[in-house]
Amino acid sequence: RLFHEVGVELFKPVSFKAQCRCSKERIKSFLATLSLTEIDELLVNGRLKMVCEFCNHQYEFERSDLMTLH
Predict the structure, then answer these.
(1) Cα separation, 60 vs 39, whole angstroms
(2) Alpha-carbon dihedral of residues 22, 23, 29, 33, nearest 10 degrees?
(3) What is this structure's pTM?
(4) Residue 67 has pLDDT above 90, yes or no
């Protein structure tokens, strides 16, 4: 009733699909935004483990791989 002078528009329904977009490259691009000090603080025994909270996929990186991001 608030906008009674404006016509009603119906749009085609859009179906949604839950799908994860994580990948090792996307994780690396995020890690490249961190400083080397921050990366060193995340390492455990020279390795960094990250888990996608959406699909539960686990990614592991060696220290040597991460130091080449900068």
Answers:
(1) 13
(2) 50
(3) 0.68
(4) no
Give the pLDDT confidence of 32-61 residue by residue, as tens digits: 999 999 999 999 999 999 999 999 999 999
Which of 32, 23, 30 has the alpha carbon at shortest distance from 67?
32
CB-based burial label for 17 (10 Å; 0-12, 13-18, 19+):
exposed
Structure tokens at 64: 């040597």
Q: How many CB atoms lie within 10 A of CB 69?
A: 15
Query: 36 CB contacts (<8 Å, ≥6 apart)?
Result: 67, 70
Neighbours of 48 (CB within 10 A): 19
Does pLDDT of 22 surpass 90?
yes
